Amino acid sequence: MTDDTQLRALLAERFGFENFRGPQEEICRHVVGGGSALVIMATGDGKSLCYQLPALARPGLTLVVSPLIALMDDQVAALSRKDIEATCVHSMLDAKTRAERLEAALSGEVRILYCTPERFRVPGFLDRIRAVEISLLAIDEAHCLSQWGHDFRPDYARLGVVREQLGSPPTLALTATATPDVQRDIRAILGLGDAPVWHTGVDRDNLFLSVRDLHDASDKLPRLEQIIERVGGPGIVYFALIKDLLQVEDQLRARGFRPLVYHGRLSASERREQQQRFVESHDAMILATNAFGMGVDKPDIRFIVHWQVPRTLEAYYQEIGRAGRDGRPAWCELLYLEEDVAIQREFTEWANPDQEFLRQVVHVLEGLGERRDAFDVQDLRQTLLVKNRRDGRVETCLRLLQVAGCIDGDLGEASFAFVRRPTDEEIEDWLPDDKRRRDLMGLYEMVRYAGAETSCRKDAVHRYFGFPDEFPGGCGSCDQDAEESQWLDAHHADESRVPVPRQAPQLGRVGSEVERGDWIDVRGHGLCAVLRVHRTPKGTRVDVERARDLTPRTLDLGRAKWRKVQPDEA
Questions:
Q1: Spatial contact of 235 and 503, defined as CB atoms under 8 Å apart
Q2: Which of 229, 354, 368, 406 would bridge with 401, disulfide CB 3.0–4.6 Å?
Q3: What pTM does this model have?
């Protein structure tokens, strides 16, 4: 089905759209005709349609590799609502459900099958997939393929081999951001040769880009409050450090706000709940680490604030690209404090083990012998590192070794096995000498963007991604080319603003009102679930669990400032 009329009919019938956007139609015709391509589209421009529509127009199974389980679940649910046969298999499902879903895909009941790149390491999975015709292989978030990308994942690097073992089917690599170096890496790893690239650029007229150069960390919260009050919600505040996120949560609660939170100290179910509440809200604010946002389908985000400088311009553009997907104006501001750069420099160092460090990891694992069942990742960290929980070099080395088949199973489990030593050639290939330097250069480019050297924010982003100067007269929507207050007056009229809910804190000391199962908001601790109440002649004490980190506490309500919170507030 390559006729334009037929494609448009399919678009209207199955997806409910009368017209394609941008280059979607051209890409779909190319893919339906059996071609491969690299597609770079800004967040919200409709990348998914470029493989979902051809999946219905071509015979056989479309296999989609996606990095996040939540993202796969959301996309399958959205397709199911359109009566499009799609499913996914991942580690959060029980074995019976995974087997049933895979069988449905292999038997032809399903047109689109989603999986993570790690799934190809599961024994037997690739062999079963090879038994059917793969009409199209789609690689979402394809920048994860490249070591020069901002979100490299070792399992993605094996997808070129996977593609070859599947018979080199037509392949669509999709991402929102890719520098020229990353584009070359994607092509080389997947074997795309001279397949065409569609790049829609990175300009978003409705996004205002601002950098607020601050001299002290205490200036950040007042500025955030100004943005919340002037722009309205929904909005996201991104943090590099969880401790800063928790501190700001307490400060905002003391001012009457009730922000949602998303970070690594919450359980998976708590993170899913916080994300869902944000997606469904018309006015919420969420405080999050950079793990939040990929796959979040929320078009009405009105502001995104970065509390600290991100590590790269790719990561920054990915994150601000989640704002204003409905086409309406959105405010994107970086609160720039020069000392924050040191945080990202440390992250860069800790994300880049050198070859000698990897050899040390191998030496320790190889010598475990009978201790392997009792020796876990924490033990390995303590053996090789000065104590710092943000140092991720051990985890990076373990992922590299596991993807290459040098180790099997999880360290500390009975199933763990040291299979073989990596060769020197493999180590040199995994950890090239210049990766750390190039990552540091990526941080340097981010600092240049934030600094006074930038004449136009959007022009700086375009040049970084390999585009010519498209704003000779200025973009008109950044703090270097427009007056902020005038832009806000023109684009954020008061009648269209959605206020972020705020109320005066009502803190009390009436312990008799609290019962087991209640939620209380405690100054300095935030939201707490009441587990047990102790009433004595001297007053009321409660055993609680803090929502932000699940740690238990015993609090004297006669000394603490607190208020009871209704279930719909908690």
A1: no
A2: 406
A3: 0.74
